[in-house]
């Protein structure tokens, strides 16, 4: 992706997430609920109460939830500096692979 297009794409995404999850008491309630549901601050390993072994399917499901939380969190807190760093990395990759 060309640097300007990539920058615009991230800017649009960041703006959309900030509008959706902007400031406000309802937003804080929703984000707190999502953080809990997505195990943002907890262990994603689930141990079966029946077998005492790791329940891999349940653990994988929680890892997926955590990925959703991470995505929301990253886009909400992305700074212009972060965006610049991403674009620099993209340019380096294009140089390394001859795609730029």
Unreliable spans are none
Question: How far apart are the first and last residues' alpha carbons, in Å?
Answer: 9 Å
Structural class call reads mainly alpha
β-strand amount: under 5%
The number of E-state strands comes to 0
Average predicted confidence as pLDDT: 86
Shape: flat
Q: What oligomeric arrangement do these chains adopt?
A: single chain
**Major sheet, described briefly?**
none
Share of residues in helices: over 70%
Q: What Rg do the Cα atoms give?
A: 18 Å
Q: How do the helices and strands follow one another from N- to C-terminus?
A: HHHH
Number of helices: 4
Give a nutshell description of this structure.
The chain has 100 residues and is mainly α.
How would you portray this structure in words?
The chain contains four helices and no strands. It has 100 residues and is an all-alpha fold. Helix 1 (3-20) packs across helix 3 (56-77) and helix 1 packs antiparallel against helix 4.
Set down the secondary structure blueprint:
Elements: H1 3-20, H2 25-37, H3 56-77, H4 80-97
Helix pairs in contact: 1-3, 1-4
């Amino acid at each position: 992706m060309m640097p300007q297009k990539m920058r615009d794409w991230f800017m649009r995404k960041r703006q959309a997430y900030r509008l959706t999850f902007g400031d406000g008491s309802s937003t804080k309630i929703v984000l707190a609920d999502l953080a809990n549901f997505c195990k943002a601050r907890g262990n994603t390993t689930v141990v079966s109460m029946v077998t005492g072994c790791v329940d891999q399917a349940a653990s994988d499901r929680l890892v997926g939830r955590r990925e959703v939380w991470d995505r929301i969190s990253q886009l909400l807190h992305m700074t212009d500096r972060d965006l610049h760093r991403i674009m620099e990395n993209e340019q380096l990759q294009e140089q390394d692979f001859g795609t730029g």
